[in-house]
Design goal:
Blueprint: E1 5-8, H1 14-23, E2 28-31, H2 36-44, E3 48-49, H3 53-58, E4 62-65, H4 70-77, E5 91-94, H5 100-111, E6 116-119, H6 126-130
Parallel strand pairs: 1-2, 1-4, 2-3, 4-5, 5-6
Length: about 130
């Protein structure tokens, strides 16, 4: 069985990346705070939409985050409806442009909960993300 993948952040870069995951046949769950149009397009291609980051995490093994920066990453990870609230071990890949000290602190906090955070900032443009 393929690992379940989640994606949060369906903007200019994230929507293309998520579309590639679905196109390659991977099971994908998405959560969109703002870009519902991108989420609906992905759902029509075979993804499922989660009500909250916590719900997304409950059904996933790997979650990619592609949001603006550290405050947004922390918002989708922490809190009662955040990814970490799922209580299960996860691999979180943060593709955002985050503050290194914030990322280091968040990684340590998550490690204590059995969650691995990988810092993987992006380069290039939305064109390359869609390819």
């Amino acid at each position: 069985m393929k690992q379940q993948i989640g994606f949060i952040g369906l903007g200019a870069m994230g929507s293309g990346m998520a579309a590639n995951i679905v196109a390659k046949g991977w099971p994908l769950a998405v959560w969109a705070h703002r870009n519902q149009e991108a989420a609906l397009k992905l759902v029509s291609a075979g993804a499922r939409q989660a009500a909250t980051p916590r719900v997304l995490a409950e059904g996933c093994d790997i979650v990619l985050i592609c949001v603006t920066g550290s405050p947004q990453v922390e918002a989708v990870v922490k809190g009662p409806e955040g990814l970490a609230a799922s209580g299960k071990p996860l691999l979180i890949v943060d593709c955002s442009t985050s503050n290194p000290s914030s990322t280091i602190a968040l990684a340590a906090e998550l490690a204590a909960k059995g969650v691995t955070l990988i810092d993987a900032p992006l380069a290039r443009t939305p064109k390359e993300a869609a390819e």
